[in-house]
């Protein structure tokens, strides 16, 4: 409904849908009253008359109004770029946890447990959700389960039973009941009706043990893939990461006990990625959703770049230098990011990458799947007990790697700030790990030498040349920048690293 739109006007929505503007994909949805369905702004179907349209700021609001998702544009595959996202910190934290599946499955958290984890009361959490989404945390969790199940039904050959299990349902019967009650179709009916609109290759069994699935992951443009892929390419680890061509990227991963690798192909003209995920063991399928969410984080697919760019462009002497579409290139884990940061202390990126390659080659386990010889990133236990003789660097930094690995091995869930108690790890290393390993959006690395050099150069160039030159107080300058760039400091960091 129009009154649910938080930041977009009805006129903005009207113009966006008439032009099928992809920048608004995921920011609002279009309910068509004459058909009882709701669509994305980019839906290729014949445009309905304005009098038959209502606008919603989230798919779940449309569901709550009794509308069902369009089988052609598939709202379940829209990027998660809610118009209000980022304005309510507690709700956003809750959404991230629910999207990660903490309320799904046999061991799913109750609303009370989720509220406790967020540090608020359950009644207050329900109130926040109703204000933001018009529904409860429990119903939102059920909605996310359904939308992921719907994507699997469209894009894979998994059986109905497997889809229900992967989506977090305890029984096929319950899965069918919830699916039909909400979407007014059974899983089998939806698969038949939606089959002709499938846009991704169906999943297949791998040539050896394991399972292989293909999915599509959408985003809101702009997306500077050249920057992101170039950033990864410069820091690539042989056998663990690869790029077969300019539009692709692949790497191995470990998520708890789950191991595998994924490959993405960027389809710039369609604002999405085709993703193929290979799991070494078929029994790991129930954790597929966790893997997918991690890949979304890795490529920062849910960022609202227009909003971020508008915010940063208002900063004096910064705005005119911004590049379009720069996102946060994540690492698979905070531990990996910490290792990369320690190896990168006081050396160039090229030298740090050589050290990283040597460390992974010597200590990363080999895996063979689908005809590939793959290398895993070393576990904390492995590095804690490794000699690290292959690393041509000061003994103090080797000791830091070992101490860091031992700490993570024994306290894997510790807050990253606790890493500062480890000798050889300072604020820069922790901040880097937060930015790339946790995708924290608000890390401005002012202590980074490249960032400092470029900030000062840009500041000096912007000065009024008619005034007497005064020494720049870098501390005062960066304190001001932190305030002005918040909560998008990480994006400013990558903008500054990109400056030439």
Describe the structure.
Helix content is 43%, strand content 11%. About 1% of the residues have low confidence. A five-stranded antiparallel β-sheet has the order 5-9-8-7-6. A four-stranded mixed β-sheet has the order 3-1-2-4. The protein has a two-stranded antiparallel sheet with strand order 10-11. By secondary structure, the protein is of the alpha+beta class. Helix 6 packs antiparallel against helix 7, helix 13 runs antiparallel to helix 16 and helix 13 packs across helix 17. The protein is built from 20 helices and eleven strands. It is globular and about 70 Å long. The protein has four domains: 76 residues, 3-Layer(aba) Sandwich (DNA Methylphosphotriester Repair Domain), CATH 3.40.10.10; 109 residues, Arc Repressor Mutant, subunit A; 89 residues, DNA-3-methyladenine glycosylase AlkA, N-terminal domain (TATA-Binding Protein, 2-Layer Sandwich); 100 residues, Endonuclease III, domain 1 (Orthogonal Bundle).
């Amino acid at each position: 409904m129009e009154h649910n739109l938080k930041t977009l006007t009805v006129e903005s929505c009207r113009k966006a849908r008439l032009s099928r503007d992809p920048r608004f994909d995921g920011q609002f949805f279009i309910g068509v009253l004459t058909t009882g369905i709701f669509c994305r702004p980019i839906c290729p179907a014949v445009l309905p008359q304005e009098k038959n349209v209502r606008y919603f700021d989230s798919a779940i609001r449309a569901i709550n109004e009794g509308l069902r998702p369009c089988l052609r544009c598939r709202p379940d595959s829209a990027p998660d770029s809610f118009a209000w996202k980022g304005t309510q910190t507690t709700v956003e934290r809750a959404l991230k946890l629910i999207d990660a599946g903490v309320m799904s499955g046999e061991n799913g958290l109750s609303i009370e447990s989720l509220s406790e984890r967020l540090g608020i009361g359950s009644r207050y959490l329900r109130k926040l959700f109703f204000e933001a989404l018009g529904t409860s945390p429990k119903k939102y969790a059920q909605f996310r389960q359904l939308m992921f199940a719907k994507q699997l039904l469209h894009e894979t050959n998994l059986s109905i039973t497997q889809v229900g299990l992967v989506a977090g349902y305890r029984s096929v019967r319950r899965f069918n009941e919830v699916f039909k009650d909400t979407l007014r179709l059974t899983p089998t009916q939806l698969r038949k009706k939606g089959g002709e609109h499938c846009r991704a290759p169906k999943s297949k069994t791998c040539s050896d043990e394991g399972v292989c699935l293909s999915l599509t992951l959408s985003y809101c443009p702009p997306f500077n893939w050249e920057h992101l892929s170039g950033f990864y390419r410069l820091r690539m680890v042989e056998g663990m990461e690869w790029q077969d061509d300019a539009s692709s990227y692949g790497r191995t991963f470990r998520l708890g006990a789950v191991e595998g690798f994924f490959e993405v192909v960027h389809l710039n003209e369609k604002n999405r990625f085709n993703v193929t995920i290979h799991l070494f063991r078929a029994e790991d399928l129930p954790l597929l959703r966790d893997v997918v969410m991690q890949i979304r984080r890795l490529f920062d697919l849910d960022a609202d770049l227009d909003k971020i760019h508008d915010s940063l462009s208002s900063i004096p002497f910064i705005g005119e230098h911004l590049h379009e579409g720069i996102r946060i290139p994540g690492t698979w884990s905070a531990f990996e990011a910490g290792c990369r940061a320690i190896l990168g202390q006081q050396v160039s990126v090229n030298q740090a990458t050589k050290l990283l390659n040597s460390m992974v080659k010597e200590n990363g386990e080999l895996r063979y799947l689908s005809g590939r010889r793959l290398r895993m990133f070393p576990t904390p236990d492995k590095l804690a007990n490794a000699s690290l003789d292959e690393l041509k660097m000061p003994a103090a930094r080797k000791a830091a790697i070992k101490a860091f690995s031992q700490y993570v091995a024994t306290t894997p869930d510790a807050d990253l700030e606790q890493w500062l108690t480890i000798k050889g790890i300072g604020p820069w290393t922790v901040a880097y790990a937060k930015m790339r390993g946790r995708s924290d959006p608000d890390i401005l690395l002012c202590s980074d030498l490249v960032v400092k050099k470029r900030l000062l150069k840009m500041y000096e160039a912007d000065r009024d040349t008619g005034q007497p030159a005064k020494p720049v107080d870098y501390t005062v300058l960066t304190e001001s920048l932190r305030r002005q760039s918040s909560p998008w400091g990480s994006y400013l960091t990558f903008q500054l690293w990109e400056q030439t």
